[in-house]
Amino acid sequence: MSDRFIKFNDEQLDAKQVMMLQDLARLLLKNEQTQVKIQKFPYYNPVQNVLITSWFWSHRPSHIEMAGFKTDVMLAAYGYHMMDVQIVNEVVQDKTFKTP
């Protein structure tokens, strides 16, 4: 294991930054209960009402880091609003897409 990996797991989140991302997510998703977390892959979980941004942006210049986090929030929120539930259900139920 590298030192960077250990640091990655032990680092503390900037509470002010997370609160700003959470405010942005709540505004875009129109839900005051939305929570924001920073993990490996960005996505929005509508069942748990949690929007995940990616650790990928950490350890970069601050302006790039903030732009990356905001981009994750915006893409997840707009992707959720643009998603067609009927099409998602068709794909999930289609046997063609099943893996062995």
Features:
3-stranded mixed sheet, 3 strands, 4 helices, alpha+beta, 100 residues
What does this structure look like?
With about 100 residues, the chain is an alpha+beta fold. The chain has one domain. It has helices at about 5-10, 15-30, 60-80, 85-95, and strands spanning about 35-40, 45, 50-55. A hairpin with a 4-residue loop joins β2 and β3 (about 50-55). α2 (about 15-30) runs parallel beside α3. It is globular and about 45 Å long. Residues about 1-10 have low confidence and may be disordered. This is Nitric oxide reductase activation protein NorD.
As a whole number of angstroms, the C-alpha radius of gyration is 16 Å
| Number of domain units | 1
State the share of residues found in helices, binned by percent: 40-55%
Number of H/I helices: 4
Q: Please provide the ordered H/E string of secondary-structure elements.
A: HHEEEHH
Mean pLDDT: 86
Major sheet, described briefly? 3 strands, mixed
Question: Quick summary of this structure?
Answer:
The protein is of the alpha+beta class. It is built from four helices and three strands; from the N terminus they run ααβββαα. A three-stranded mixed β-sheet has the order 1-3-2.
Q: Layout of SSEs?
A:
Elements: H1 3-10, H2 15-29, E1 35-39, E2 43-45, E3 50-54, H3 62-82, H4 85-93
Parallel strand pairs: 1-3
Antiparallel strand pairs: 2-3
Helix pairs in contact: 2-3
